Structures are given as C-alpha cells and as structure tokens.
Automatic annotation (TrEMBL):
Residues 17-188 form the Metallo-beta-lactamase domain. GO terms for molecular function: 3',5'-cyclic-AMP phosphodiesterase activity. The lineage of its organism: Bacteria, Pseudomonadati, Pseudomonadota, Betaproteobacteria, Neisseriales. InterPro entries: Metallo-B-lactamas, Pdiesterase2, RibonucZ/Hydroxyglut_hydro. SMART domains: Lactamase_B (SM00849). It comes from Iodobacter fluviatilis. PANTHER family: HYDROLASE C777.06C-RELATED, HYDROLASE C777.06C-RELATED-RELATED. GO terms for biological process: cAMP catabolic process. This is 3',5'-cyclic-nucleotide phosphodiesterase.
Amino acid sequence: MQLRILGCSGGIGGANRTTSFLINDSILIDAGTGVGDLSFSALTRIEHVFITHSHLDHIACLPMLVDTIMGSRNAPITVYATETTLNVLKKHIFNWAIWPDFNKIPNAKAPFMRYSLLELGQSCCIDQCTITAIPAVHTVPAVGYKLDSGKSAVIFSGDSVCNTEFWDIVNSTENLSHLIIETAFSNREYELANAAKHFCPLTLLEQLKFLNRPAQVLVTHLKPADSELTMQEILRDHSNISISRLEQNQIITF
C-alpha cells in the first residue's frame, strides 16, 4: 500500500494544503484542499472517502470532488463517517442551500454519492487495506484511523488531544510502522491549543511518553504562521523517539 500525502497543513496560502491522504488511487482519508491538486483522471479513480470529523479543513474539497466527477463514474463515491459527522454533512453541506444533495441526484436509487455509517471501532476492508475508526477527542465528535495492509500499519490521530484509548490501540498494534499525529500550535499558543483541543509541543511530548513501541512519528496539521517554530520546539525537547515533519507529497509505503 502507498499513502500519498496530498495535504497536511493546518492552513492555506502558498503551497500549503489542508489534510487529505490518498491510499493507492481510490481511497481518501479526509478531503481537505490537497485534493484539488489531483488531475481530473486521478479524481475519477477515487471511490471511497473516510472523514475524521466535520471541520472545514478536512471536508473542504468533498463537495467539489463529487460535483467535478459526477457522471464520469459508473458507481457513486462512498463517504464513510460516524453518524454525527454524516448528519452534519447532510444538514449543513449537501442541503441544496450550500451544495446539491448528491445523495439524491440524479435519483435516490442511483445517486452520485452515498453515505456509509462507520462506528467507532468498526473496520472496513477495501482493496486489501483494513481501515478502522479509532478514538479521538476534539471540539466536535471525531475519529482517527488505523490503516493496515497486513504487512504494516499506519495510525493517524486525526485532530485530537489526550486520549488513553488511542494509546491503547497504538501500543497494541504490533505491525505499527508510522504514527501520524497532529500538533497545530506552538507553545506560545498553549492556552489556545487547549481550548481548540489541539496539541502544542508541550502537550504532544507529554503524550508521546505513552508510546511504548517503535514507530516513525510524523507531525501533521502545523499552522503555517508558526510551523518552523513548532517543529523546533518539538525537536529541541524530544527524547529518543524518531520524530519528523509530515511533508506534502510524501509517500509512505506500508
């Protein structure tokens, strides 16, 4: 399996793209602005979209994706999320006021997009990749995802803070190769990070003490204004854990 990082920034501007990861050619994890850099041909090959939560930086390109490729596929795009997140998409995005309801057109029996409920802890096996919704703690109901090829696994925290259940899953994943974990703010924004339920270096490094198995730790969701400072603060104070910055267009083989 290949995980291509289409976007991993906590903001936009210049080359910054918000969260979206592509597994092989057909599976998206979140649909942030990074999706917009794909060619039309690549967009038509996307069949499944797994959403961590309803915040705009993680769903911004989903409406445009469906609109762009409608009629160019023989099957609908399937959007997977928890019940709460699906309800937000239905009520606030695909509601005819903001965007058409592609779950109803061209007709309800053969729509351009369909929803698939994914409960916390539930797994889907698609193209030999097992995708499992795992716990996350954010300002809205959210999940992370474990991506397992059978050979190795990548765990993505989504937007989240302190969460013992998350670390239980991380530490019980024997074939874990990469841990992608968010840190949005620098330490000078400590209070804001706590209020927004994001990590800053101080809280990230405190949480990483719970990691008890080897893995490459990749930091994502850095806010553009302080991205360099935030990574400096992480790398200055981390112990013997292998930590680096997740990069746009990076490819992780797992």
